[in-house]
Amino acid sequence: MRWGGRWRRLRLGRRCGLAALVFGLLASAAALAQERLVFDVLRDGETIGSHHFEFEQEDEALKVSVETALAVKVAFITVSRYEHKRVERWRNGLLLSLAGMTNDDGEETELSIVLKDKEYTRTINGRDEQLAAPIVVASLWSKSVLSGGKLLSPEKDEVYRVRADLLGREVITLESGDVEAERYRLSGQLSRDLWYGPDGRLVQIRYEHEGSVVEFVRR
What we know:
Blueprint: H1 18-32, E1 36-43, E2 46-58, E3 61-74, E4 77-91, E5 94-104, E6 107-116, E7 119-124, E8 127-132, E9 150-152, E10 159-174, E11 177-188, E12 192-196, E13 202-209, E14 212-218
Antiparallel strand pairs: 1-2, 1-14, 2-3, 3-4, 4-5, 5-6, 6-7, 7-8, 9-10, 10-11, 11-12, 12-13, 13-14
């Protein structure tokens, strides 16, 4: 089971929606400081792992630590394993840096993105590339990233051209109680149904993968 793909070069020629992105990330950053969002990951209704975001104010930056651990078993034997960890740092809605490691069924990827002098250096397994700022990373904890039109994967060498449509509002039941959430659908090169609460924080993800339904459900 592969959850990633091969690197393609990123060119962000259009900057439509970036003002809304920055404003939304600022609001989300203020609300999320010192907070943790934990999700159960289900495949066809069966729990296969967990995914969490941890937010911490660090000097003038927001530090976001992300961790995903998935394992698919058949007859008590693990047939697929996926592990990912990364740390993002944001200031005033701008990504300062990102450093992550991914193990996708034994295929390891090390990725870093660093902003310097209005330009990003992206390094994938030791290979460098320069990217013009700003960029929009597909870190879905804030619905603000949906306005960019292009999303850079924080796990693999993937750039997705996407469209986000608001489908309506639904009540989602969490362990902590009911949340009235906005449901968005990402289409294009990345297909996801995403639910966000009134504060813009991620509540749930659903998509199809290799004939199965995968869900990230917040506790």
